[in-house]
Automatic annotation (TrEMBL):
Taxonomic source organism: Romboutsia sedimentorum
Record-linked Pfam families: MotB_plug (PF13677), OmpA (PF00691)
Family: Belongs to the MotB family.
Transmembrane segments: 20-40
Protein name: OmpA family protein
Main location: membrane
The organism's taxonomic lineage, starting at the top: Bacteria, Bacillati, Bacillota, Clostridia, Peptostreptococcales
InterPro entries in the record: Bact_OuterMem_StrucFunc, MotB-like_N_dom, OmpA-like, OmpA-like_sf
Annotated compartments: Cell membrane
Amino acid sequence: MQRRKKRKKAEDDINPDSWLATYSDTITLLLTFFILLYSMSAVDSQKLKELSESLKHSLTGNTDIAEVEDVTDLKFKTGNSDYEDLSKKLDNTIKSNGLTDVIKIREEDRGIVLQLDESILFDPGKAELKENSREVLETITTIVNDTDNDVLVEGNTDNIPMNNEVFQSNWELSTARAVSVVRYFVGNQSLKPTRFAVKGYGEYKPLVDNSTPENRATNRRVDILMVEQKEKK
């Protein structure tokens, strides 16, 4: 009788939910592992999927585990090094020529943008390059010559309507300004015309709202985009 009581007491001491703690710890470790992967860089999605499937099969007790390549084969993409080098090169060239207040650099998904205010290049409502804009454009010519990137020149205006004897809207004005810049590169500096493209956005691609004179001045600009080169597959 005493033995039965001891056996019953021993059985009562067993916690049927004790496995939950181990399972919870395992899930937490896996979650930490995947967060670490994504925080480091972009992961090769196909290999990550294979690894995830293998771990899932293992946790469910399925012995038919998917074949996975060595975890060290998971490749992390730390960014386009050529793109980063180009950004540094442009920044150094602009600084060495004392043009940091004249040429602003923006980095976008599509490439690096050299931003020039309207006042540097043109008189209000006109599309003929100012004489004193040549120094700035000569520096940009050096930049373009040092790269193989295609170049997209984009004209932009503020939202004040344009309608004079030459330009009936901001579309025409912004496009004409972009064309004037490309003509300088091709005609005056003998750069290859096949590298260039032109777009005129009018007032429809503002950087800031047009609520103040300062903001409108920011939006009146020519953007010179050094198009990011795609890796050949």
